[in-house]
């Protein structure tokens, strides 16, 4: 073990003994002899916040991550003085603070240690920049696992890894490369079946070490700012993620069409090319809802302008595309071309909206348009202005979504690929350097974009996609994982990134399907599509310098596989929308890694590939060429093979067949999976019936279906439909009870019920205790029936 003396010798400073403490309503502050203060806020009985001030006052309390409507609960807050420590209790936790040196231990009420400081808080003074490098080290508990942390392209369980958060444009990154585009300083620790989370809300460059440097020590530190972290108690991983998402916020429901399929490329131009692509989708009957315009639609890469040679009449084009069911999404970058004749540039200069260097000149850097200046999105006035710039694009031309790229911010041909450290930022009036604002720059750009789209899309909902992000960015926008590569390894990376993002509060994420750099084989493209339709954001994108990446760019077999899986996604839209609702309403991640799904089963702790899509569909990607199937872990419970009906008992690893036209999919027994008919785009058809695939179970299971108008805000006024189905299966009976909430009247009158795995032959059907004629429900002999949607109990009796 390292001793304090050794560390002190290396310039580290430590708190000394407690001399006093002060108690406020929900806070206790301890003061040490050497002027260190530790403030503990009891936000809820399971959520605590720890802030340290080293030899000075606390900073102004401000955070871009924490959302205004995070839940705070009342707590009885008692403090007791013991011989060598103070102890405080909530109804779930005990916190001990050592009198000698401020070291902490957090325990559950049975006295089990959840988290314990090793050296605890210490710091190093930073003469060069002022302030401190603030550090924390903790003991790792026996076989502790670590999850979360945003977009790290590594094994889900981060034990043994050291990582860094510094938002970076990392073209063609590789496995384990760090840092990437997002900074999410939040991790979940799990040991002895118990999980807790730590959110280190510090926007400077942060570092985390999970038992890498020292086998039993976890540490985290930042290049500046405060040691300021939240502790979120589980005991389930789910409760930790939900608690973190409550703190950092949830998005509103997106328009339903955004859950359809999106096609993108760098770049589709001119207009005739765009039309050729969209027409081909309709011709080949491959569903698609969105088409993207990358940077070449602009005039010399000037944001908010159009290249009139390529796109002579954008409003007409966008309307024509809309006619055909396509929503147009355009890219907007942060760099504003230095051009005295360009209105955006002029407005920014007139109003002093650009970021400046320490000595006063504008921050100047090269991006696509050539030399650019960059708006300071951390200034609320600048965001207001930026949001207004979208008026023409959205309200007039009819663009439906905006894609924010390069917002790390990326700068070409310079060391570090971003702004220099000395660039100044407003930071909501807490003026600072780029060292502090870097990680949230892209987030604030996406926020300003979101605010603009929200304003001009109204009464419809906005849609934004971003590359750079910090914790909390999910409130404003979806995201993609950046410039990946068309390799099999990247298919694995895409999946762990999207799963990790979901566990880090940002479910609405997807990868560039097929790979951005280089060219996928048809087989790789097909395998990527099969997985991509199960990721919340589903978009094909490619850099375009290596050939085409449309569903028809390979051979007929690949086209047919692509169509089949995109069709499956469109059929599953009500299921997917219900997942999204559960995310927006309850903070439940849309994808659940196996450890989230069943943390008590130690086999799940190191699994990477398998995941639960929503609550009841298990998916596992095929990650190797020439596969006829793969070995995978089926979690505990009984699961129906989606392709073949038979039931597998989980809790074991097994071989699952999945030839090129299949991906392993299993449905949890008892599930009721809602499906729409295939549409070429959302809203193409009036939904005339809702299909319910009912997977028989001996026992009980609950399923939900959320629906509303698919756009607009009526759902916030109660105009939604939330159905809960409670299934009870007995040896020769099946009972489905329906509970309905909300004022939205769904367009269909009937459910088409597919009974799967029924172990008996039907002999009678009762709806709300009235026996009905079999002919009336149209039993085809194969377990299908159509019944009116307004029932409270469907009772199927067998012989
Ligand atoms: O320097 O706009 O990640 O999706 O197609 C490259 C062109 C800039 C990077 C994005 C990518 C986009 C590309 N952009």
Protein architecture, described:
This protein is an alpha+beta fold. 19% of the residues lie in helices and 32% in strands. The chain has 13 helices and 52 strands. Strands 1, 6, 7, 8, 9, 10, 11, 13, 17 and 18 form a 10-stranded antiparallel β-sheet that branches. Helix 6 packs parallel to helix 8 and helix 10 (522-532) packs parallel to helix 11 (556-571). The longest helix has 24 residues, at 434-457. The mean pLDDT is 96. Bound molecules: ligand MIG. The site of ligand MIG has 10 residues, from loops. Residues 689-757 form the DUF5110 domain. Residues 38-209 form the Glycoside hydrolase family 31 N-terminal domain. Residues 251-579 form the Glycoside hydrolase family 31 TIM barrel domain. This is Glycoside hydrolase family 31 protein. It holds the Pfam family Gal_mutarotas_2.
Concise overview:
With 799 residues, this protein is an alpha+beta fold. β49 (762-767) and β50 (770-772) form a beta hairpin.
């Amino acid at each position: 073990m390292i001793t304090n003396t050794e560390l002190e010798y290396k310039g580290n400073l430590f708190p000394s003994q407690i001399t006093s403490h002060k108690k406020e309503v929900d806070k206790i502050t301890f003061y040490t002899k050497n002027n260190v203060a530790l403030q503990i806020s009891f936000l809820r009985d399971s959520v605590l916040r720890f802030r340290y001030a080293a030899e000075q006052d606390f900073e102004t309390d401000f955070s871009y991550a924490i959302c205004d409507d995070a839940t705070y609960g009342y707590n009885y807050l008692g403090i007791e003085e013991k011989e060598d420590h103070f102890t405080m209790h909530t109804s779930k936790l005990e916190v001990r603070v050592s009198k000698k040196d401020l070291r902490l231990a957090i325990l559950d009420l049975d006295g089990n240690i959840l988290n314990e400081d090793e050296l605890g808080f210490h710091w190093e003074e930073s003469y060069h920049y002022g302030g401190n490098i603030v550090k924390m080290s903790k003991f790792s508990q026996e076989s502790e696992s670590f999850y979360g942390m945003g977009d790290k392209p590594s094994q889900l369980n981060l034990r043994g890894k050291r990582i860094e958060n510094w938002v970076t444009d990392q073209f063609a990154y590789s496995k384990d490369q760090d840092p990437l585009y997002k900074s999410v300083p939040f991790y979940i620790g799990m040991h002895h079946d118990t999980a807790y989370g730590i959110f280190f809300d510090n926007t400077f460059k942060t570092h985390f070490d999970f038992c890498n440097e020292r086998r039993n020590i976890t540490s985290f530190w930042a290049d500046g700012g405060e040691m300021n972290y939240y502790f979120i108690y589980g005991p389930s991983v789910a409760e930790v993620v939900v608690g973190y998402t409550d703190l950092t916020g949830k998005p509103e429901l997106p328009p339903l069409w955004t859950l359809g399929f999106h096609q993108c490329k760098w770049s589709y131009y001119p207009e005739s090319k765009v039309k050729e692509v969209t027409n081909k989708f309709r011709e080949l009957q491959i569903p698609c809802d969105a088409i993207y315009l990358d940077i070449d639609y602009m005039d010399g890469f000037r944001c908010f302008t159009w290249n009139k040679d390529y796109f002579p009449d954008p409003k007409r084009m966008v309307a024509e595309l809309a006619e055909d069911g396509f929503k147009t999404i355009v890219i907007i970058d942060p760099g504003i071309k230095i051009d005295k004749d360009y209105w955006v540039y002029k407005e920014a200069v007139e109003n002093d909206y650009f970021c400046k260097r320490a000595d006063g000149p504008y921050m100047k850097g090269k991006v696509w348009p050539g030399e650019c200046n960059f708006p300071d999105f951390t200034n609320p006035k600048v965001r207001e202005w930026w949001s207004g710039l979208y008026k023409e694009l959205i309200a007039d031309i009819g663009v439906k979504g905006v894609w924010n790229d390069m917002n790390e911010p990326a700068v070409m041909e310079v060391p570090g690929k971003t702004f220099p450290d000395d660039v100044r930022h407003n930071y909501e009036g807490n003026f600072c350097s780029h060292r502090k604002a870097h990680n949230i720059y892209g987030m604030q750009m996406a926020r300003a974009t979101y605010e603009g789209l929200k304003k001009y899309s109204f009464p419809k909902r906005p849609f934004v996609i971003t590359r750079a992000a910090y914790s909390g960015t999910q409130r404003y926008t979806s995201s993609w994982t950046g410039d990946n590569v068309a390799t099999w390894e990247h298919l694995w990376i895409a999946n762990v990134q999207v799963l990790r993002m979901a566990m880090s509060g940002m479910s609405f994420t997807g990868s560039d399907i097929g790979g951005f750099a280089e060219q996928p084989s048809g087989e790789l493209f097909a395998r990527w599509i099969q997985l991509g339709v199960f990721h919340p954001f589903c978009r094909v994108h490619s850099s375009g310098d290596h050939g085409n990446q449309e569903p028809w760019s390979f051979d007929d077999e690949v086209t047919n596989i692509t169509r089949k899986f995109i069709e499956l996604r469109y059929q599953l839209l009500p299921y997917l929308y219900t997942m999204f609702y559960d995310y927006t309403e309850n903070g439940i991640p849309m994808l659940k890694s196996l450890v989230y799904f069943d943390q008590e089963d130690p086999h799940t702790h190191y699994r990477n590939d398998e995941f639960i899509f929503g609550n009841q569909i298990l998916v596992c990607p095929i990650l190797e060429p020439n596969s006829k199937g793969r070995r995978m872990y089926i979690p505990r419970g009984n699961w129906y093979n989606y392709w073949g009906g038979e039931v597998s008992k989980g809790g074991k690893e097994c071989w699952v067949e999945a030839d090129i036209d299949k991906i392993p999919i299993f449905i949890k027994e008892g599930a009721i999976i809602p499906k729409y008919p295939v549409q070429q785009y959302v809203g193409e058809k009036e939904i005339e019936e809702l299909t319910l695939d009912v997977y028989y179970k001996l026992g009980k299971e609950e399923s939900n279906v959320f629906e509303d108008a698919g756009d607009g805000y009526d759902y916030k006024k109660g105009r939604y439909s939330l159905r809960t189905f409670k299934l009870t299966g007995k040896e020769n009976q099946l009972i489905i009870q329906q509970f309905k909430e909300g004022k939205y009247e769904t367009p269909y009158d009937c459910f088409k019920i597919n009974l799967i795995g029924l172990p008996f032959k039907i002999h009678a059907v009762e709806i709300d205790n009235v026996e009905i004629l079999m002919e009336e429900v149209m039993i085809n002999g194969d377990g299908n029936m159509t019944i009116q949607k307004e029932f409270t109990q469907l009772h199927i009796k067998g012989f």
